[in-house]
Each structure stands twice: as C-alpha cells, then as structure tokens.
Amino acid sequence: MAKEKLILITNPGSASRKYALYRGKEFLCSLHYEFERGKVICTLKRADDTKEKITTDLSDLSRTVSHLKKILDEKGFISEEVSLDAILARVVATGDYFTADHIVDEDCLRQLEVAKRRTPLHVPVVANEIEKFVRIFEGTPVLTISDSAFHNDRPKIAKYYAIDMDLADKHEIKKYGAHGLSVGSIVEYMKSVDILPEKLIVCHIGSGSSVTAVFQGKSYDTTMGYTPLEGVMMSTRSGSIDPAAALAIARAKHFTEHEDLEEYLNKKCGLLGVSGKTDDMREIIRLRNDGDERATFAQDMYAYRIRAEIGRMAAAMNGVDAIVMTATIGERSKEDRELICNELEYLGFTMDDAKNKGDFSERHTNIAADGSKPIWVIRTDEFEEMIRRANELLEK
User: Hey, which residues does 32 pair with through a beta bridge?
Assistant: First the structure.
C-alpha cells in the first residue's frame, strides 16, 4: 500500500496567511498568521482542536514562509526523516495557462509574472508566496492548483465575450470563471453518495459568490468571468456592472489609475456599498432585524441577483433537476436560503421551513419540501479537492 503523501496547502490573503498540513486526506494542523495589536501572531491548530498562539518577531507577512518552516520543524511535523511531498497553492489567474494545474518550474514562474501584470489585484500575493516556497522549501514540488480548471470544458459559447474573437484569443480575454475547486468538490461528493443529477445548479455563496450550471457532472456555464468580479453581488464586489457605469464611478471618485477603479469595485461595493455599514452577512441580518432599511435592501438585492442567475443557468441547460447551496453563507444562513429559494417554485423547487432551520450535522441535507425537486445544503471541501487534483498531477 502506497504511503499517504504529506501535503502543505497555502491560502494567502491580503491581511493574513493561512496554511494547512495533511497526511493524505487526514488533517494534521493549520497555521494562521495575522496582526494582533501590531504584532504578527501565529495560531497553531492541531487535529484534536487544541490551539496554541505563537508570538513572532515578524513585522509584516512577507516572511511567514520561513517562520512556518521553523514551526513545523520545532513541533515535529517535519524533520530530516519526514519531509513534505508537495506544497499546493490555489491560483485564481486569467489566461489559458492557468486553466490547468502545474508543477511550478521556470515557465510557470514566468506565467505568474504575466498574470501579475494582467490582474494586479488578484495574483501578486499568491505569486509571491509561491516564489518563496520554491526558494525556502528547495527540492519540494510546489503545485499551482487552478480554481478555473473545472470550468475549462464548458461549451465555447459560454467562454467568450461578444468581442473580436481574434483579440480575445491573442490577449486571452475570456470568461475563465472561479470557485471551480468548490464546485468540483461538490460534484465529486455527490457522485460518491449517488445523488448527482444530470442538470445541477451549484450556488457557492460566501464572501465571494457564484452560480454554476453543471450538466452531466461538468461545468456548463458560470457567473464569474475574466476575474472573480463578474457575476452576482458579493460581500465587497459589485458583481456585473456596465463598463460605462464603472467609468462614471471613476470620474465621480476622481480616480486617476485603472487599479483604483478595480480596487473600488472589488473592495468597496456589494453588501458593504449597498448597506453602507458592513460586508458581514451576520451583521446585515442583525441590522435588518433592527429595521435598518439599507441593510434590508442589501440582503434583498443579494438574494435577487442569485435567484436571477439560477434562472439563467436553468435556461442555459434547458432545465434543472437539483440545486446546491454551499460555502459560508449557503451552508450557515437560513435567512438567505429562504430569501433565495422561496421564489423558485416556477422551476419546481419548494423549501421546507422546518428543514431549513434544522440539523446540518451531516455533510449533505435536503431542505426541500415533499414533492419538490431537491434543494441540497452541502459542505464544500476545497482542500480535499486540491489534494485529489494534486495526486492526479503527481502520478502522471
């Protein structure tokens, strides 16, 4: 029997760094670096749920990879006898190259530099992290796991914008999509428990949100496009917007750089912009319950945009057999599931209120009423999907 691989997964954010260590599919530990009272603190969480806070001498997050290696060694997770088999980095990047997974080499590093220039808001943090892992963990394979790969087999008609196709191909300006790891995780799980229908709509509803049509287990269409900005309204992203309206925003805000507008649409809009107060759905719901009109409007708009895309995805596939709600809000917010699902009767879906408020201890739960098509709430597991894909790549 082959030995289970020791795999480290990196998930860098703009204000934190998160790492998780697995032996095969078994979780061993996670390390979360973030600022606390002006210092970078590392929180080590073990498989038994015990936590340990470690104060570092780091002044910023640029040196967490070196510190991480030291902690893994000191705590006995790695040693001269026990080394990492692979390091995985989830990559959301435009361009045809990143619609597949890769073992990082010189060509991959060059492609990351191109991606950084194309989308300076989304790629630089993870690209810089990858470069550090290649240098500091020399000899350990580093893999880029594409968040768009699941969507790459979509029909051509769903991948192109209505622009000059020669321009689109030459400059790789296409709808690449994202949340492919999450949707792929859902599809693999539904296959494993024999509940995958022919026509499925997956609603990944979290701080970033998307709706994906899945036909016979493969992506058929999805709402995110050239970048994760396109599609439904999100926590801080506007979602789809008329480019002329975006330019009007730039003029009104006196933006002088394209990056300023891109950052505004990605980080100052969505629930945050509409509510005027917060991007946290839990806080939106609290404000709504207190009678806040803008928070109420923000949540209603959020649900409306998702419902509209569910309808579009059903039209794309000429029908739908089941819907999945997943990710943080989809899995945890009964209020949002109710707002979204209560107006889908025309597609054959009716939610059971008691089931929607019930127990979700199992990984999948059907909250549909008797006689309705299934409405599944399923916990996504992007790390599990990354490991599955990495093993496929390493075994080639």
Answer: 18, 43
In Å, what is the CA distance from 68 to each residue of 8, 20, 75, 307?
A: 11, 11, 11, 42
Clarify whether residues 321 and 206 are in a common domain: yes
What are the tens digits of pLDDT across the range 268-279? 999 999 999 999
Mean pLDDT for the chain? Answer: 95
Number of domains within the chain: 2
Q: How far is CA 195 from CA 186, 192, 345, in A?
A: 11, 8, 21
Q: What is the CATH number of the domain that holds 68?
A: 3.30.420.40
Q: What range defines the domain where residue 31 resides?
A: 6-146
On whether residue 204 sits in a domain, the answer given is: yes
Answer whether 214's CB lies under 8 Å from 200's CB.
yes
Residue 70: Cβ within 10 Å count: 10
Known catalytic residues are 147
pTM higher than 0.85, yes or no? yes
Same domain (yes/no): 142, 224: no
Q: Please spell the DSSP secondary structure of 220-282, one letter per residue.
A: EEES--SSTTSSS--SS---S--HHHHHHHHHHTT--SHHHHHHHHHHSSHHHHHHSS-S-HH
Number of other CB atoms surrounding residue 102 within 10 Å: 18
Mean pLDDT score, 138-147: 96
Q: HSE of 221 in the Cβ direction (CA atoms, 13 Å)?
A: 18
Interstrand relation of 16-23 and 26-36 (parallel, antiparallel or unpaired): antiparallel
- Are 125 and 226 contained in the same domain? no
Give the chain's end-to-end CA distance (angstroms, integer): 18
> Are the beta carbons of 68 and 40 closer than 8 angstroms?
no
List Cα–Cα distances, 375 to 11, 15, 101, 319, 326, in angstroms. 30, 35, 31, 15, 11
pLDDT at 2: 59
